[in-house]
Amino acid sequence: MTFESIDRILGAFANRIRTPEQRQLQAVLTRWPEVVGKSAIAHTRPVSIHRNILYVATSSAAWTQDLTFRRTAIMRNLNRCLPDPLHDIKFSTARWPGQSPPTATAAGADVPHPSAVPDGPPPDLSGSPRPETAIAAFELWAEKVRARSRNWPSCPRCHCPTPPGELERWSICRICMARER
Question: Residue 4: is its pLDDT beyond 70?
Fold first, then answer.
């Protein structure tokens, strides 16, 4: 019986269970420092590859923008060492370690959006038959929307029912507000 190092055994085992995307990500991780440069290493982290698209977490929106402009060159350099070339690279701050969701840090995070529909009782769908056609489904949906908004105040400009939060914030509905801008 021969004894092999534990690293070699674990390495062989890990190679058997890795998916092709995981192996491709490992190849990206080994080349990443030389491809993006020393200044970007501390602010970027390749996270995953899905359908030949590399997803990279960045520490800030400024790094996201900078690397997005350099995306083509980065992809060209990475594709030289990959067996299956990347189709695109997506940069985002969303998956940066320690990054909290925007709603948790935003002022007034507990305040609902002005267009939020006030909570009401859930619709009773048990007695209604399933619509047979797309038009019937649309008519059923439109009736539910009309019933929900029946008691809403009207927009002073277009006279359409408007969620109360929109009128409190803008004094008009979101559609009239968008037209105004």
Answer: no
